[in-house]
Design brief:
This protein is an alpha/beta fold. It has a single domain, classed as TIM Barrel. The chain is built from 15 helices and twelve strands. The protein has helices at about 5-15, 30-40, 45-50, 110-115, 130-135, 155-160, 160-170, 170-195, 220-235, 235-240, 255-265, 280-285, 300-305, 310-320, 340-355, and strands at about 55, 60, 80, 85-90, 95-100, 125, 145-150, 205, 245-250, 265-270, 290-295, 330. The chain has a seven-stranded parallel β-sheet. The chain has a three-stranded antiparallel β-sheet with strand order 3-4-5, with no helix packed on it. The longest helix has 25 residues, at about 170-195. The radius of gyration is 20 Å and the shape is globular. The protein starts with a helix and ends with a helix.
Amino acid sequence: MTMTSYERVMTTLNHKNPDRPPINYIATPEMNNKLKKHLKIENQEDLLCYLGADIRYVTPKYAGPKEFIGVPGVTGAGKDFWGVEWKALKNKFGTYNEISYYPLAHVKTVKEVEEYSWPKLDWFDMSHLKDEIKRINDKERRAIMFFAGGAFESPWYMRGLERFLMDLIECPEIVVAISKKVMEFYRERTMRAIEESDGQIDIFYSGGDIGTQRGMMLSPELWRKYIKPQTKELITLFKEMGFKTFYHSCGSIVPVIGDFIEMGLDILDPIQPKAEGMDPNFLKNKFGDRLSFHGGIDEQELLPMGTPQEVEKEVVRIIDILGENGGYIVCSSHAIQPDTPVENALAMFRTAREYRY
């Protein structure tokens, strides 16, 4: 029986086998344009349908002061709504935004954090969400996802990573003050999205990279003491309201996966298979009865440097492992980068579309 995208995703997240594994698509703008050009497709929705993507994203519309770009700066150059300034840097494949100014780098007290000019909820308009979701679901119901923020990355973007990590030892009260302010803003913004959309959003995703290739960026103990309480606010609340929850962290985060399950996490992303400890067999065996996985198709070596045949073989292998009894959404282990051959990206999506349980 052929399922709708919504049925396919929800069946999977309830740890049952759907007709085929659900698929999600994330790519850099340059890769997105390469695929459209290769396929002679102009419309983004047509591209998503061609690839077999089952998830759609909705976002607020920025309506705040013009001095800010209105999106988290990693997706656009300029001053973002937190006051972080981003500069576009190019290599031969694409453009990436890097931080050029940390607005809270200078603060020495919690009082200074409290007195900072924080963004306002009214800077974001949600009034379009209900109609937009209706339009998305017009022909086929999709799984709708909304960004619920994070309590680690945005805070260090404002403070500077080195200073923020030192703060965890020297002045953790500053870490907590910044993290709480960011979390509270994102939490209230997400609550407005729920209200304005009449509860039609299905999955709320939060995130913040706490892993590296070899292990966690900070000790599990420091994370649990100073970051976890705010991270939990952006997961547990929405889980208890009946929504599905999703968290993104690149790298190796094995020591705290159990903590995320305890918080009410449904989906862990992006399953970076070459990071230490993030072996799909291990993750499925240890956590697969309590957690679903999103990602897992290697973007470090396989997609940019493998052959289409190698991609096909690996996609089948990963689905066989992570998708046993549901619990897996096929996606690359990071946004597909512009040095990835189009043929490899298409091989990934074609193999996932044709897989049958």
